[in-house]
Amino acid sequence: MNVHHRRPGTARSVSYTLIVASMACGETALADLSIPNVPLTTSATAPANLLYIHDDSGSMYWSYMPDSMAGGYSEDPGQPANRFMSAVHNKLYFDPREDYPPPRKADGTEVENSNFTSAWSDGYDPNRNNTATTYEDGLKKKVNLATEYRPTMDYGSDKSMPGCIFYTRYGGVCSSGSYAMWACFDQPANVGTRFAVGNPGCTVGGNTSYARDYGASHERPTENVGGTNLPAHYYDPVSGLPVRILRETDSGGTAAAQVKLRQNFANWYSYYRTRNYAARAGVSRAFVDLDSSIRVGWGSIYYKSKPYTAGNSPTDFDKTTIDGKDVYSVTQGVRPFVLEHRTKFYDWLFKIEPVGNTPLRHALDAAGQYYDRSGSNDKLGPWADDPTDGATVATGLAANPSAACRKSFTILMTDGYWNQAGAAVATGEQDGSGGTSTTFTAPPKADGSPGSVPVTSTLPFRDTHSDTLADVAWYYWAKDLLYGNDNNKVPSATNARDKAWWQHMTTFTIGLGVSPSVANKTNAFNAINNGSAPGFTWPDGSTYQIDDLLHAGVNGHGDFFSANKPQEFVDGMKSIINSIGASAGASGQLGTNGAQQGADASSPARIYASTFKTDTWSGDVTSAPIATVGIGAPAW
Questions:
Q1: Is 455 left (phi over 0), alpha (psi -120 to 50) or beta?
Q2: Considering only 38-52, 85-99, 188-202, 335-349, which range has the smallest mean pLDDT?
């Protein structure tokens, strides 16, 4: 319904512009009030920024999780090849209990289903349907899963290697004394037998021990094994027995359950069977729900500005100027997530090719540098209404009042353990109680409270370790990233995890196929509001790097998710997107009773303010008198 009121006349009145001028995050005009039948919208807050950083390290090509499935590349894996085909052991392998829907496209529709008898090897390849039948490295573009299925373990420089079912390395000593030779498991029923590639004379002691202790129930299907006629199959996660997926021509092959199973397996093969494929699917399905008003940018941890050479470090590549800042890793600055920009994001996501190491600290530091415009001559960049306008902070703030309340987030996604290059700026011990920690001072809020106060790492953020991912996350949360002390109006809910009012970076982390060893997520995040110890001591991030990934989510006042299966990754990414949408949406509206200030002392002009917090689904309505010097204290 609509509620009408009189506009102030010519008598002395308070300028409504002055009333809301101090509310740069959402100006409102005195006009007809429309009372909605849904929760207050988020239009009163400045559109938030979101950077997504994707892991494009070489291990993202692997077709198994966790890393321990292979036991490491320099030691004997000690596991039979058939365990890689069981979702009980290999969390990335096909699980008949899970659904594998196609990824989403930028417009929200699904990519088409794969085809069991002509399944794309790479369902994300934009040229998957052209006339060529193979890629340059010999890998077939389409595979008949009924007759020529080969489970993959690892894609390196050679994706084809015909005749092998899985690739790994073993640490046995060959006659030449060499270690860690490439090996492949062939297809005989005795899955323990191994054949060394390139050195047929090489033998390793105990080469049949791989099948030990697993019994007949874990033997590979014997039908059509050894030739080119290998059907799609898996090990049942409950019984442990091998299951061959029926062809349409087999007895019972036309049953509805088999038709559904074939489709599900084909989708898994084309869209989920590697870590990179599963991550693409999860991100595509989560980001489709992201509101178009949120401004999205992106990059990858190992962004390569020129061709990669083995052994390259991220610092071997060139920085790119993004919205006035020279940075690594970030390839696209934040822009409203409207269809045109959303399409660019999905095109980029579907083309990411993994290679290189895992410099997570370097990449998160680059994201923070992109947001950091704390120098007066820095370009306003992501804090401006138009990140490309080129204005400096000193000259552009007046024309960009929404910068005062803009929230900025980063999602860091990875499948493993950081290595190689560390942070370029946020170095040393940032979240300790002393030592080399950078001292940050939070500027006063817009109303002058609570004055300049030190930002110190209390529990549960504090540790005693230097140069960790958590140090980077803390640095860019604690630092005021926008020049000036009179523009700090970043809103937050009363019970929000992140209560910082200065411009900062909130960090979310998500691990694919990895879990903390020591830290407990629930205890860690609960301790933020309690200001207490989390019930454990943060271990050294250089050794316990997944615990450090969790610690980064805590220090960044965002969140952390550990996904051990593709669907868990989808759920975790959606939860992050929902949290960002909710946090970015604290909102409110203003109204008056229409009276003129000073016209009638018995019925003074009043201002009514309503607020709604989308992250807690709670809100308030307050009433305060309008005085000649401003707005009085709320009466209720």
A1: beta
A2: 188-202
For 125-177, write each residue's pLDDT tens digit: 877 777 777 766 566 788 899 887 877 776 543 333 332 333 332 333 223 32
- C-alpha span between 293 and 589 (Å, rounded): 19
How long a stretch of residues is the chain? 636
Long-range contacts for 305-312 (Cβ within 8 Å, ≥24 apart)?
Answer: 308/355, 308/356, 312/356
Using one digit for the tens of pLDDT, what is the confidence trace for 366-392?
999 999 999 999 999 999 999 998 999
Closest CA to 356 of 272, 278, 277, 415: 415
> Angle 275-287/339-351 helices, nearest 10 degrees?
170
HSE (side-chain half, CA atoms, 13 Å) at 489? 19
Q: What is the C-alpha separation between 609 and 592, in angstroms, rounded?
A: 9
Beta bridge partners of 408: 49
**Count of beta carbons in the 10 Å neighbourhood of residue 124:** 20
Q: Which residues make beta-bridge pairs with 300? A: 54
Q: Which residue has the tokens 């409102």?
A: 28
Contact 157, 190 (CB under 8 A): no
Decide: 569 and 521 in contact? Cβ < 8 Å.
Answer: no
d(CA 537, CA 8): 62
Q: Which two tokens stand for residue 476?
A: 């860019």
Residues 224, 244: Cα–Cα separation, whole Å: 11
Q: Which residues contact 371 (CB under 8 A, 6 or more apart)?
A: 49, 51, 382, 408, 410, 476, 481, 503, 505
Taking a C-beta distance cutoff of 8 angstroms, is the pair 66, 46 a contact?
no
Tell me the pLDDT tens digit for each residue of 58-74.
Answer: 889 888 888 877 643 33
Residue 22 CB: number of other CB atoms within 10 A? Answer: 12
CA-to-CA separations, 394 to 21, 424, 516, in angstroms, rounded:
20, 25, 43
Find where tokens 């016209």 sit.
599
pLDDT tens digits, residue range 478-493?
Answer: 999 999 877 888 988 7
The amino acid present at 424, given as its one-letter code, is A
Q: Are 331 and 348 in contact (CB under 8 A)?
A: yes
pTM equals 0.78
460 prior amide bond cis, ω within 30: yes
DSSP label at residue 404: G
Please name every residue paired with 588 in a beta bridge, in sequence order, or none if there are none: 611
Cis-peptide, bond into residue 450, ω within 30° of zero: yes
**How crowded is residue 130: how many other Cβ atoms within 10 Å of its Cβ?**
9
